[in-house]
Amino acid sequence: VRGMMYYRKALELQAFLDNAKDDDLMKGYREIADMKESELMTECKAIADMKFTYVVSCQQYGIQKRSGDPCAHDILRLMTTYPSFRVAYIDEVEAPSQDRNKKTDKVYYSVLVKAAVTKSDDPGQSLDQVIYKIKLPGNAILGEGKPENQNHAIIFTRGECLQTIDMNQEHYMEEALKMRNLLEEFLEKHDGVRYPSILGVREHIFTGSVSSLAWFMSNQETSFVTIGQRVLANPLRVRFHYGHPDIFDRLFHLTRGGISKASKIINLSEDIFAGFNSTLREGNVTHHEYMQVGKGRDVGLNQISLFEAKIANGNGEQTLSRDIYRLGHRFDFFRMLSCYYTTIGFYFSTMITVWTVYAFLYGRLYLVLSGLDAALATGKRFVHNTPLQVALASESFVQLGFLMALPMMMEIGLERGFRTALSDFVLMQLQLASVFFTFSLGTKTHYYGRTLLHGGAEYRATGRGFVVFHAKFAENYRLYSRSHFVKGIELMILLVVYEIFGQTYRGAITYIFITVSMWFMVGTWLFAPFLFNPSGFEWQKIVDDWTDWNKWISNRGGIGVAPEKSWESWWDKEQGPLRHSGKRGTILEILLALRFFIYQYGLVYHLNITKQYNQSVLVYGFSWVVILVMLLVMKTVSVGRRRFSAEFQLVFRLIKGLIFITFISIIIILTAIAHMTVLDIFVCILAFMPTGWGLLLIAQAIKPVVEMVGLWGSVKALARGYEILMGLLLFTPIAFLAWFPFVSEFQTRMLFNQAFSRGLQISRILGGHKKDRATRNKE
C-alpha cells in the first residue's frame, strides 16, 4: 500500500512543479507542503485526488470487522493514513425472509468504504464510511477467487486507465514519477494500426538475496519480464497479460468482458485470459521497460513448487480452452507458432522432453532383456558407428538444467556486462542451479500432464511468505511423492537393470554421457527437496521428522481428518483426479500402468535358476503364481492384524513367525537345490516390485469394481506398504548424512545468505540452552 500511494505523492509534486510560481519554486516543495493554509498545495492535492484512487479488493473485510479481527483494524489504519485509499468488499447480512419456511435469508452487498473524517488525532479511533453499497442477487464468489474479487470491485474504479497490482508488489517514488509519461503511450499506434489496450511494464524482483533458490527465481523472473516479454511484444506480437502490473485501457475492457475471466477450473490462470480476450477483440498489448514495479517472489522450494504446479495446471486448462483454439485459427502461421511456443507449447515441449527420457530408457530395457543388446555389442558396424552413438548420447542433454539459465545470462549480459553474466552463471552452477531447474522440469511435466489426462486443476495457495523455514519430511513426501519420487524410483530401477545386464558403451564417452546425466536426473528428483530444505541435515530435525513421519503414515483416515494428519486421507485425496476422469482417462491410466509389467516379463528369464527354461512360457506363468502367493500372504497378515492383534497377540505373532520361517526355508532350499544366487534375489525384487505397483495403479483406476469385489482394504494395505518402503528409501541416505555435522554446515553456508546462516546458528545455541534448562527442571 505504501508503495502504490507514491503515485499520489508523485502527482502532487508534478502538479506543484506545473502550477507553482518562481517564488514558490525557490522556497521548495517541502516548505510549501508544511504550510497548512497554502492554496497551491490544496490545489495540488485536489488534482492528485481527481487523477488517482487506489481500490483494494478485500472480500473478507466485512467478516473481519464484525469478528474484531486485528486485520480489520490494520486496514482501517491504512485508510486513515492514506486519504486516497479505498476498500471494496462483499458484505454478508442476514435479513428477514419472505419465505414462510425460512426465518432469515442471507443478503449480499458489494460495498466501497473509505476512512471517515474525525476530530480525533488518534487513527485507532477512526471509523470507515460507506461510499457505495450495491445489493447483489447472490454470492458473487462463484468461480476462482482472485478474478471474482477483481470483477466485483471494478465497478468502483473510475478514469480511463486501470493498473492491476498483486499484493506481493512494491513501488518506488522515482518510478511513480514516470506514470504520466507511460500513460501517453495509449495515444500512440505502436503497430501502426491500433492504439494499445494493455501497457506492460517490467518488474524488479527484490527477494533474490534470501537464498540460492530465491536468487534463481529472481533471475528467471527478471529474464522473463525483460528479454522475454520484450520479444513477445515486438516483433512476435504475442504478449498477453501475466498477472503483472500491466495498465489496462479501462473503457476498452469494461465494454469487452472485463479484465479477467472467473469460470471455475478452466480459468485457473485467470490473468492470461485477459490478454487472450483483448487480442481476440482487436486489442494491442505492448511492453515498456523504462518503468518498473517491485515484486517479491517465493523463496522456499515448496512455495516455488506450488506456484509452478498452479501455473502448469493453468496451462493444461488453457490447452483445453476455446480461447487458445480461436487464437490458433485467427493468427497467421508465424504468429500462431509464436503464440504456441510462448504459452502452452513450452509446457507441452517440457512434457515431451521427459517422455523422451522414458522412451529412451524403456527402449534400452527392451534391447537389454531381449538379448539384442548383447548382439549389437559384438557387431562392428554398431560399435564403430560414431554418428549413431552421438545421436543416442544426445538424449542425455535434454535433462541438463543449466540450459534453462541461458536467457538469464543474456539479460544479465545486456544490463550488467557479459563478464558479470558469466561469473553469475558459474556461481549459480556451484549453488546447484542445475539441480533446481531439473527438479522443476518434473513439477511442470507432472501437473501439466495430469491436467490434460484427468482435468480437475485447482488453485494452490503458496502463502507468498518471506520466511525460509524447515519443511518436515512428511510434508515434502506429501508434496513430491507422485510428481517426483515415484518417477525417480522408476527411472532408478530402469538404470539399475541397464547397469546389470547392459553390454554396449562400456568405457565409452557416449556411455558416460547417457548414464551420468540420467543418474543426475534421478538423484535430483529424489533428493532435491531435502537438499534445499533449511536444516535438512541437522540430526535433531531428522529425529523429529522421523517421529512425525511414523505418526502420519500410521494414522487412520476418516471423515474430517485432514491429509496433513493422516496418510489415508492424503491417499484418498490424491485419487481425486481419477474420480473426476472420464472413461478415456481411466483407460489411458490403465494402459500407462501396463509398462510396469515389462520388468517382470523380461527379468524372470535372466535368473540363474531359470536359464535352462529360458524359452518356456511356464516361467512367466510361475512368476505370476509367486506374486499371487505374496499378495495372499499380505492379505492374511492384514486380516490377522485386524482380528487377532488386540485380543490374541500371541496367535498373531505365531502366524507372522510361521510365515517368516517358511519364507527363509524356501530361499535356503532354492539356494541349495536350484543354485539361486544373491543376484537372483535382487533381480526378483526388481521384477516383482514394479508389478505390484502396476497392479496398485490399475486397482485405483477401477476403484468401484475393486470395492464391489471387496478387495479395497487389501489395496489400501498394499499401498501403505509401498509408501513405507519409499519413505525408508528416501530417509536412509538423509539420516546417514545427518550423522556428520559438517554436512549441515556446508549446506547452510552454500545455499543460504550470511544473515540466515547466522540466524540458524543463533537459534541452535538458544535451542540448546532451552533444552538444558528443561532437563534441569525435570531433574
From TrEMBL:
Domain of life: Eukaryota
Single Gene Ontology BP annotation: (1->3)-beta-D-glucan biosynthetic process
Classification via InterPro entries: Glyco_trans_48_dom
Residue intervals of the Glycosyl transferase domain: 1-672
Molecular function via GO: 1,3-beta-D-glucan synthase activity
The keyword Lipoprotein is assigned to this record: no
Lineage: Eukaryota, Viridiplantae, Streptophyta, Embryophyta, Tracheophyta
Protein name per its UniProtKB record: Glycosyl transferase 48 domain-containing protein
Transmembrane regions listed in the UniProt entry: 339-361, 390-409, 421-442, 508-532, 587-605, 617-634, 654-674, 681-702, 722-743
Transcription regulation found in the keyword field: no
Keywords for the protein's UniProt record, in alphabetical order: Membrane, Transmembrane, Transmembrane helix
GO cellular component assignments: 1,3-beta-D-glucan synthase complex; plasma membrane
